[in-house]
Amino acid sequence: MKRIFSLPAIGLLIAFLLGNMIASFAQSLFTVDVKGSGKPMILIHGLTCSGDVWKETVAHYQDKYECHIITLAGFGGNAPATRDNFLAAVKDDVINYTRTKKLKKPVIIGHSMGAFIALWTAASAPDLFEKVIAVDGVPFMPALQMPGATVESAKPMADNMYKMMSAQTQEQFEANTRMFLGSMITSPQHIDEVMAIAKKADVKTQAKVMYEMMSTDLRETVASIKCPVLLMGAWIAYKNYSVTHESAVAMYTAQVSNVKHATVEITDTGKHFIFYDEPTWFFQKTDAFLL
């Protein structure tokens, strides 16, 4: 006896399979841990890190927010998925995840690399998010240290950085990471915690991400962001290079000058991991912004 499949049934089957593929693709470049309840909040970590760095932030907000804590492929022990335009693909995945999960006007918070992704995401889907908090992460990193930098002028440095980073052994990567963390975090305990996470990071993924951040300029792109943006900066690491509080404010403000509703806050004492170094200041600013 012949089995007859109707066109509507076939159509439903195709739709089901495509739906599953889309849902799977929405999370193909990261895993998500969900904690708390309330308004949705998406949190994206920085270089060498994982969603674990948001532990204190999640504890602070999980009574009022449903926290979607992202860990990217190649970070925190997740299998690498390096590809061309990795960060652009992650940005698209965050948008797909937000839509697939039907998150209504989430807040998106990112640190460093995560802030770069958060700004790009909000610019690419201007009606999707309620607010953006960028924690010491900017649209074009080279211009923060070298005013007047362009993609063209920064490319040789980006190429060299990629070659050096991708050629590291695991031991070299860990030694260099610990050295850099000393300039980014004050507390030895937090340095040790981040180092424990960094040891699980894929070296080539870190090199790829650093290259893409150094060779991608979002300063014009972020003009598409409709929602309010809070950019939090730290200047103490630049203090020995004749950077004052005022000039740091100017540097960070220039990065978001094209954003319609941007607020810039600079900590005088916190290093790059502001939420570790100055938690009281950090939560005062974020709480006020989220009201």
UniProtKB/TrEMBL annotation:
Residues 39-194 form the AB hydrolase-1 domain. Keywords: Hydrolase. GO terms for molecular function: hydrolase activity. Pfam families: Abhydrolase_1. InterPro entries: AB_hydrolase_1, AB_hydrolase_fold, AB_hydrolase_sf. The keyword Ribonucleoprotein does not apply. The keyword Hydrolase applies. This is Alpha/beta fold hydrolase. The lineage of its organism: Bacteria, Pseudomonadati, Bacteroidota, Cytophagia, Cytophagales.
